Amino acid sequence: MQELLSIREASRLATEQLKREISPSNISYLIQYGLVKKYGKDGSVLVNPDEVLNYYKSFKGRREIEWKKKLGSDLNWHLSFDHLREKDTTKHVHRLHPYKGKFIPQLVEYFLDDHTDEFKKHVYFKKGDVVLDPFAGSGTTLVQANELGMHAIGVDISVFNTMITNIKISKVDFNKLKNEIGRITGRFEKFISQRNNLYFENELLEELNIFNKKYFPSPEYKIQVRKGLINEKKYAGEKAEMFQPKFHELIKKYELQIKQDNDGTFLSKWYLKPVRDELEFLKERIYEIEDETIRKILMIVLSRTMRSTRATTHADLATLKAPVYKPYFCRKHRKICKPLFTSYNWWKRYTRDTYERLLTFDKLRSNTFQLAVQGDSRYIDIFEEVKKYNPDFYHLLKEKKIKGIFTSPPYVGLIDYHEQHAYAYEMFNLPRADELEIGPLYRGQGREARASYVEGVSQVLRNVKRFMQDNYDVFLVANDKYGLYPEIAEKAGMKIIQQFKRPVLNRTEKDKSAYAEIIFHLKEK
After folding, report:
1. What's the farthest any 2 CA atoms get from each other in the chain?
2. SS3 label, residue 101
3. pLDDT digit string (tens) for 244-288?
4. Residues 314 and 429 in one domain
5. What does the alpha-carbon distance between residue 227 and residue 246 come to, in Å, rounded to a whole number?
6. pLDDT at 511
7. Residues 374 and 492 reside in one and the same domain
């Protein structure tokens, strides 16, 4: 073992050897999250320089250095949460339903909790405070506020987003939920037993397994492609066509209708007929439930099932391109895959997963108020809306007012927030308000779209200020590549007093390139 060094000494050594600045705060980060061991006695903090150098030569360490090179040395790696596993960033109810554009719960915790460090030098919120998220999305801020013993209000223009959020924070009768899951699943199994699609899918899987072992053996096939011994595009296309006669033979055997008769709607275009029939059956059974909370929980489960059973390739599940009605070569799995002909396995998986996630959160929840309301944050009277649903929360709000905001406004021209859940809107006949979204994808990122975005976000801030305490704190998470937030702050009558620039590592998109966002800290001007 080399001689142990102080943090500052290790910083100088690492900077010299790696030819890249490694600050004392970088070393502190490694210690804080157990990435290098802390040594020393009597309050002194020492590190083994070999451990520090080995970290920065590892994948994670190289990534930190490369990202800082591309994105700037002001990148705050404390906010990378590089030490976390995916199961940590999607803990309990945070994975109740897929949602594009949400931040991880640990980012909310960092700013809401009572810790300080060399970057976060002040505590902004305390237990019992009221936190607002005027772009509530899927409710991450509200859930974390509950965990931290704070009250929270969320506002979102989307009816479906509001439903997701309220289900996450609702108190649940778990006996009722378990009984309803059992009742519906039992009837679903009886329904399926009278049909052929589950048997068809099982035999199709057997045939595909035999075919793929012969023509796409792993890892031999991938090695041959890498060596250039196989032209994958030509080979895979030929083999996909070779399998089609077997597919049609099974369709005839089980007398299965694959396509729906009408493709004029989202549901008729993106679901095979056997799956669509199952989903409709489940919906009708869910609508029979009298308890509103249980009914909406299972609507969310059904929606999650619907997302996973769309007739698309595995590679295009997040961004739909064209419906798939037959086996195809899968770019993700490098073999012949198939669309889904039954929703049964996903329904079973998601009912169990949802129950367990809700139960886990229930053991953590604090006795505080959280509520998401549907509305336009540019105009909504927050207190009056809360009064309609929870008079006790309303009286607390009138007395305390809102301490601050933690939110991520939509990024200009990036996502159509209603369209990402088009299947749920259509299945449950929910009203849409696409035209009221701020910065939607369909409006683009041109000058006019950016100007509209600035006015929209600043209008939200101006409106919600009237419900907040005088000494409020506002935190806005944004990738401000167009430099719009100084103008937004000015128009809102606020000033940016600090910026935290963080690397975004836990992205679900295919693009894993260096990417950063800024947390703007605003106060009254």
Report:
1. 79
2. coil
3. 999 999 999 999 999 998 878 999 999 999 999 999 999 999 999
4. no
5. 31
6. 54
7. yes
